[in-house]
Prior knowledge:
Strand content: under 5%
Radius of gyration: 24 Å
Shape: globular
Number of helices: 26
Distance between the termini: 66 Å
Amino acid sequence: xxxxxxxxxxxxxxxxxxxxxxxxxxxxxxxxxxxxxxxxxxxxxxxxxxxxxxxxxxxxxxxxxxxxxxxxxxxxxxxxxxxxxxxxxxxxxxxxxxxxxxxxxxxxxxxxxxxxxxxxxxxxxxxxxxxxxxxxxxxxxxxxxxxxxxxxxxxxxxxxxxxxxxxxxxxxxxxxxxxxxxxxxxxxxxxxxxxxxxxxxxxxxxxxxxxxxxxxxxxxxxxxxxxxxxxxxxxxxxxxxxxxxxxxxxxxxxxxxxxxxxxxxxxxxxxxxxxxxxxxxxxxxxxxxxxxxxxxxxxxxxxxxxxxxxxxxxxxxxxxxxxxxxxxxxxxxxxxxxxxxxxxxxxxxxxxxxxxxxxxxxxxxxxxxxxxxxxxxxxxxxxxxxxxxxxxxxxxxxxxxxxxxxxxxxxxxxxxxxxxxxxxxxxxxxxxxxxxxxxxxxxxxxxxxxxxxxxxxxxxxxxxxxxxxxxxxxxxxxxxxxxxxxxxxxxxxxxxxxxxxxxxxxxxxxxxxxxxxxxxxxxxxxxxxxxxxxxxxxxxxxxxxxxxxxxxxxx
Length: 555
């Protein structure tokens, strides 16, 4: 705030901006590290109420930082014609031109300072409140007959018993049917508020705003969507193949999407890995790609950067968190010894490796978009998966191939249906329409028909998917869907190139990761020698799934 107060048009702008950016880098890095540390403490011990209180205090500090940022952006915008020369004349800030111009572009879409401050203050009782309500509704849904919660029923989609999966699916739909009115109100008001704010901020539509956040062009998005659409016959072939294996006929019911592959060979039980075995395997696999990546994994294990123990009070799932002030990362997983846990561990360590490749830069250059956030994690996971596929036979090989296809189908086909759905919702809201729960269901079913096609049974799709996907209810995450598809195919396309070029690709890959926070996705890729605005690039990633389907068809 002192720097803001000291600014006047007559001062040396280059010196003022240099000093401001130095301080901003320091403060933001410390704030983000404090927040990450406090959230990590809370997730490893959910009974720790002190950490929750600290998070609340940090939220208040974050609100003040946001307001200060608005003041800074106003000054930056007044001097936008000086940015190019500033970056050229200051070697230390040579890589800042894109991120500073990006911030100026974002500011150009702001309302007045008073309106932005008001919108920020109202967020807690507006968009955030509707989002929390959706979460509260879903988390408190309980089937009266069995006493099972909604999430417990969702987990039964992975049961090896067909009747269990079907009953859970039917109960899930019944619970959502009973809660459809408040859930529809949540989604109507959230999307309605987004349309209103986008208009006031001069965004043509929600997709334009999302593209800006994703740092990609409309041409790139069109190429990505077009490639996925072209691949739909392949995915419908996969779904029909799985339906045939499960005895469902020529199409899969929705409740069998995540069904495990039946063990036709009565194979022995899956290997249970020790954590030490997992450690050695991942280090070996990472090293097979590059010594740099292998050395990082070895360091992360040796320095105990991974919390893998399953214990009371610790959250489920897995994540990687970054501490920019310390230039380190930490990984949380819940390791039980399955190969799926190996993949999860490799995935999260991939995120940590991404941070390792970029942490030498200033904090302002670390903020890569969602489109690139999954690059290193999926690439690392693929290194492990491809190796294990080469070492297994029969049921185990088919199970791994089907697991990869199932994940790919969700990230591409289901994501496409979500993209279609959200696009149609915004078109309705832009026209000023209020949508009922039935309207949302019809739009969702239409989206699923367009993407899954005849791969799913017509009368057994899931019209209520709009009600439970939390991303639809996050005010700042409109079109949160396509970045996942981007990340999946981007990493697989990079892996396809690695298979062609071998070790010479490793340095290209490492440099690419280091630039993810300081350039547009298109510019990063052009420097690495490929064009993501073409459909062929994305199809090269999709082709990586073909061998998996070949394996499954032989089972």
